Amino acid sequence: MAVPQIPNLIYYAIPFFIVTVIFEGLVLYRKQPKNYNVKDTFASLSMGIGNVIANLLSKFFVVIIISYLYENYKLATLPFVWWTWILILFADDFCYYWAHRIGHESRFFWASHIVHHSSQKYNLSTALRQTWTGGFFSFIFYLILPILGFHPLIIFTQMSISLLYQYWIHTELIHKMPKWFEAVFNTPSHHRVHHGSNPIYLDRNHAGIFIIWDKLFGTFQPELENEKVIYGLTSNINTFNPIKIAFLEWIGVFKDAFTSKTSFINKLNYFIKPPGWKHDGTGILSDDLRKEWLKNRS
Ligand SMILES: [Zn+2]
Ligand SMILES: [Zn+2]
Fold first, then answer.
1. Which bound ligand lies closest to the C-alpha atom of 286?
2. Cα(94)–Cα(209) distance, integer angstroms
3. What is the distance in A from the centroid of ligand 2 to the CA of 178?
4. pLDDT tens digits for range 159-175
5. Is 293 helix (H, G, I), strand (E, B) or coil?
6. Which residue in 186, 156, 158 sits closest to 85, CA to CA?
7. Rounded to the nearest whole angstrom, what is the distance from the C-alpha of residue 224 to the centroid of ligand 2?
8. How does pLDDT run across 173-187, given as a tens digit for each residue?
9. Residue 135 CA, distance from chain mean position
10. Which of 7, 74, 213, 244 has its CA 20 to 30 A from that of 232?
11. Where are the domains of the chain?
């Protein structure tokens, strides 16, 4: 099979990221100078740079694993033609949805994904606020793709396209897209909800490109006109130190597991169960917060 040359699209997008972050920053600063935080933007950018460096390391063995599965266990050989790109668009987005959802619903994965939610601001730079550790294990949610017969280059290219798509939705400057677009695609409005710490918005809209997965699997929540999004975490970490942003939750989960006087299974559960879970039953999960919020409203 002829394998075309496809460069890493993310590297090519970096100048575009820088120009648009500065442009949006200027617009936001002119609108509401007090509301724009340069330190927060720099923290996000440093998380983005760290992510690119960490991914150089993780990708080294992720490429080996994906290629090994493709060479030895593929069920079909999908050629480099247009319909393969349509198939990978949906297949990758499906995997992304579950990787992202589990990134919120299991604390081991949350310890890495929390980075992306750690800003109390929401702008284009937030899109670049990415994990330094997730690249080493989040690929497990994509292992089905080489087995289905997608060439590793197709898989990695689509992963980059998905990441690039999700860049522009991190903005408050776009209120709503046309109705048909909002119905099918992930949009700034849908993704603002995803970054909300309001109980009704917690763990909702995990979509990458298509919002249809959230509608299909019961995690969709539209942005409500009378419920302004409060960005960040239910307990914010209040730091701009990139090292702390990258590792605070890892320290938290290991501390909870190793210092709690409980069974081995419960210690393990600190890594498996959702964020907020406690072995003595006193933990408050996002589902509890949402139920409470709905009860108070009705
Ligand atoms: Zn998320
Ligand atoms: Zn986001």
1. 1
2. 10
3. 21
4. 999 999 999 999 999 99
5. helix
6. 158
7. 18
8. 999 999 999 999 999
9. 12
10. 213
11. 9-217
